[in-house]
Description:
The chain is α/β, with parallel strands linked by helices. The chain has helices spanning 11-23, 34-44, 60-68, 87-96, 108-121, and strands spanning 3-7, 27-31, 48-52, 78-82, 100-103. The chain contains 5 helices and 5 strands, in the order βαβαβαβαβα.
Amino acid sequence: MxxxxxxxxxxxxxxxxxxxxEMEGYRILIANTGKKGIELAIKCIPDLIVCDxxxxxMDGLTVLRTLLESAQGxxxxxxxxxSVSERIDREESMKLGxxxxxxxxxxxxxxxxxxxxxxxxxxxxxxxxxxx
Length: 132
């Protein structure tokens, strides 16, 4: 059973996604702040993270940057879930290292399709090679 970490400050969205994804067969970890999300990600190493972008104290971009600097967190596939739908924001997120980006409001089934694809293929960061 794959484990998904949801990082979301809106409790209604967090509860609804948790319920839906559990019905789809996933084990769900939840965090309502970016800081808690980072701590859980490093401690539990989920198969995938779905993270809100706009959160107080620590936004999703900072969460991803922090995880990318961590040996434990830098290979975890990462999807942004956001109400920010500007093309530039999506491009910046993907350039930073996100594997997916979904704009709220969205159908949970659409998120599941993205999750299944990314879990199957792994993070794009896992496939990068460095020249030595």
